[in-house]
Write a structure and sequence with these properties.
Keywords: Cell membrane, Lipoprotein, Membrane, Palmitate, Signal. This protein is of the alpha/beta class. It is built from six helices and eight strands. About 5% of the residues have low confidence.
Length: about 325
């Protein structure tokens, strides 16, 4: 009789453990939406952002504008909190490369090298030093002049706010629970175009991108028998890459800068009918609502199309 009771208790314990394992597996499946990334993956191109589509689908210009970018610095002064290194900044230090790439991909600007101007001039001097030291029948070395820029693009990463909003939610029942937490950071980009002939600031744009992070954590804490405690924990954390957020903010700033220049007639479209394209009107409407709509008030979706400034006679 005692043996039968012991076997029955053992079967009940195994059945309860099996049910708990299945429940934990179901919670884990909810927490992990896809297969975890492998440790060894092949290098690939940087993924595009949602703004990359608008940047690459701008209508063609009548003529490209030669621009110079001397730098795009991190002006936030923010460092990653402990336990990260105190010398590790919160945002990327290579934003100038992202800006040059965005300007080139827009199809409206021709960036010229200015960030590594000293290295470029050194190489040109080396080539000139070789002239005359070659064989007599060798062709003469010709170095064309550097292309001057008509517009200076300047600015930087002007703000990084950590933990702008955070929160979470959780529930447990009979030792089985699921909890989630989220956190929001913000990065702000400042961009301006300057006429090199007069030093006049033509356009200035400021864009903000939210960096979103969240965590999902299932757990089981349950006595499967009088002296047997089952404890299982799992979870997954997703952090939006900060460099991709900076890249998206820069691309949005370039699109806004281009559209504002069209509105002010600093540069013109190849086909004037492209002014009514959705990609142009959407950014014009966003800029108009930013200047006219009060804080925390919804924008009117029935805004009429914005017209460009009249041409100077």
């Amino acid at each position: 009789m005692n043996t039968t009771n012991k076997n029955r208790a053992a079967y009940q314990r195994l059945a309860l453990a099996g049910v708990t394992t299945i429940l934990c597996g179901a919670l884990g499946a909810c927490a992990v939406p896809s297969t975890p990334v492998q440790v060894t993956t092949a290098a690939q191109l940087t993924p595009p952002t949602p703004t990359s589509h608008d940047l690459r689908n701008l209508p063609p210009p009548k003529g490209k504008v030669v621009v110079a970018v001397y730098g795009f610095r991190d002006q936030t002064g923010q460092y990653k909190p402990s336990p990260d290194s105190s010398f590790s900044t919160s945002v990327t230090q290579g934003a100038a490369s992202m800006l040059v790439k965005a300007l080139r991909e827009s199809g409206w600007f021709t960036p010229v090298e200015r960030e590594s101007l000293q290295e470029l001039l050194t190489e040109r001097r080396i080539v000139r030093a070789l002239d005359g030291s070659q064989a007599k029948d060798a062709p003469e070395i010709f170095i064309p002049a550097l292309v001057p820029a008509s517009i200076l693009i300047d600015g930087g990463i002007i703000s990084y706010e950590s933990n702008v909003r955070s929160g979470g939610l959780g529930a447990k029942f009979l030792g089985v629970g699921l909890s989630t937490q989220y956190r929001m950071d913000q990065v702000t980009i400042g961009l301006r175009s300057v006429d090199i002939r007069t030093g006049q600031v033509l356009q200035t744009v400021s864009t903000t991108k939210t960096i979103f992070s969240y965590e999902v954590r299932p757990s089981v804490y349950k006595f499967v028998n009088f002296k047997d405690l089952l404890e299982i924990e799992g979870g997954i954390t997703t952090n939006e890459p900060a460099q991709l957020c900076v890249k998206e903010a820069i691309e949005a700033a370039v699109v806004h800068l281009t559209v504002q220049g069209l509105k002010d007639r600093n540069w013109v479209l190849r086909n004037e009918n492209d002014w009514n394209l959705p990609v142009i009107q959407n950014y014009l409407r966003e800029a108009t609502n930013y200047a006219s709509v009060p804080l925390n008030m919804p924008a009117d979706s029935n805004t009429t199309a914005v017209s460009p400034a009249p041409k100077d006679l």
